[in-house]
Amino acid sequence: MVGDGVAIEPTASGVMLAPASGRVEKIFDTNHAFSIVTPAGIEIFVHFGMDTVQLEGKGFERIAEEGAVVKAGDPLIKYDYDFLKANAKSIITPVIISNYQDYAALNPVESGTATAI
Prior knowledge:
The protein has 1 helix and 9 strands, in the order ββββββββαβ. The protein is mainly beta. 21% of the residues are buried. This is Putative glucose-specific phosphotransferase enzyme IIA component.
């Protein structure tokens, strides 16, 4: 198992935002996925869509760099919503806590819509 988390449907805004404050640990060469480590040590992995690595970076443009310290809501990657909607297998985007086992006290919260901070 990769981790615990949620899946979101991206909006046509065209920008992936930092889901939490922390350090950008990794941005894939194709810019379709990234990870952030929060000051508390929570590792968050975001992967835009399904099988988007097969697009070889088309539709994505890096804004932030690995090692950058960011705040929740900072822009990290631009994406071409229309291109990805037409060419990706799915745009549903997993947001995973990869070290969830270290945080057994996390309690799920259900919500209809998430809004960037």
